[in-house]
Design a protein that fits this description.
It is built from two helices and 19 strands. By secondary structure, the chain is of the alpha+beta class. The longest helix is centred in the C-terminal third of the chain and has 39 residues. The protein is elongated, with a radius of gyration of 24 Å.
C-alpha cells in the first residue's frame, strides 16, 4: 500500500511541476499580442489506467484594445491571419503590422501578411482595412486579407513569436463569422492576477504532496526495518 501511494504521489508531483511550467509561460506572455494560453488538466483516457495530464491551447478570443494606429489590425471572431515565413505559411492572430522595404504588409517579425492573391502591397499614402478584410490603398483595392480557421486546438502546433503550424488542412472562415478591426490589437486571453494566484496554489499543492511523500517514505522505511529485524 505505501509503495502504491508513493507512486501516485510521485505522479502528482510531476503533474504539478508541468502545470507550474505551463502557468509560468502563460504569465510571461501576458503582454504578448493575441497570445493564446495553454491549459492543463488531469484526465482519465480510455487507454490509460491512471489519469494523465492533457495540455491544450485555449483559442478563446482576448480583449480587443484600441491603439489608433492604422497598421494595427485585430480579428473579432474565430480564425487566423496567414503569413509567409522562410519555413512556409504559418497562422497568427498578432496584428501589429508595418510596411517592409518593398511596401508589403508584414508582421512584427517581417513575415509578409498574405491576402487571397498573395502578399498585400500598399503603394499609396493611406491605408484602410474594411471589416471584411478588404485593404484599400488610397481608396483603391490592394487586396483582401486571407483569414482561415482550423478544426480545433489539437490541430495547432505553437512555434513561437505568435505563430502556429496547422497539422490539418485549413479552411476559409465562414462569411460574416469574423470581422477585421483596424486600429486595434488583441490582448492575451488570460488574467494576470488569476495566473499569479494559480502559481501560489500550485506551489502550495506541490509542497503538501512533497511532505506526504516524505511521510510515506518514512513509514515504508519503518516497515522495512521492522521486517528485517524480525527475520
Amino acid at each position: 500500500m505505501p509503495i502504491r501511494a508513493i507512486v501516485n504521489t510521485a505522479r502528482t508531483l510531476s503533474y504539478y511541476l508541468r502545470l507550474q511550467e505551463v502557468t509560468s509561460n502563460n504569465l510571461a506572455n501576458a503582454n504578448s499580442d493575441a497570445f493564446k494560453a495553454d491549459r492543463m488538466t488531469a484526465r482519465e483516457l480510455p487507454d490509460s489506467a491512471e489519469p494523465v495530464p492533457v495540455e491544450v491551447t485555449d483559442l478563446s478570443q482576448g480583449a480587443l484594445r484600441d491603439t489608433g494606429r492604422p497598421f494595427d489590425v485585430a480579428l473579432n471572431g474565430s480564425g487566423f491571419f496567414v503569413v509567409r515565413t522562410p519555413e512556409g505559411e504559418r497562422l497568427t492572430r498578432g496584428g501589429s503590422l508595418h510596411l517592409d522595404a518593398t511596401g508589403r504588409l508584414a508582421d512584427a517579425h517581417g513575415n509578409p501578411l498574405l491576402g487571397t492573391q498573395g502578399p498585400v502591397v500598399i503603394d499609396g499614402s493611406r491605408m484602410q482595412v474594411q471589416p471584411d478584410g478588404s485593404v484599400l490603398s488610397d481608396d483603391s483595392l490592394a487586396g483582401v486579407l486571407r483569414i482561415v480557421d482550423v478544426d480545433g486546438p489539437q490541430s495547432l502546433l505553437k512555434q513561437g513569436a505568435g505563430l502556429y503550424l496547422s497539422r490539418t488542412p485549413v479552411r476559409d472562415v465562414s462569411q460574416g463569422a469574423t470581422t477585421v478591426k483596424q486600429g486595434a490589437v488583441e490582448d492575451a486571453n488570460l488574467n494576470t492576477i488569476t495566473s499569479m494566484v494559480d502559481l501560489i496554489t500550485i506551489q502550495r499543492a506541490y509542497s503538501a504532496n512533497l511532505e506526504a511523500l516524505k511521510a510515506m517514505d518514512g513509514v515504508l522505511s519503518v516497515i522495512t526495518n521492522q521486517v528485517g529485524k524480525e527475520s
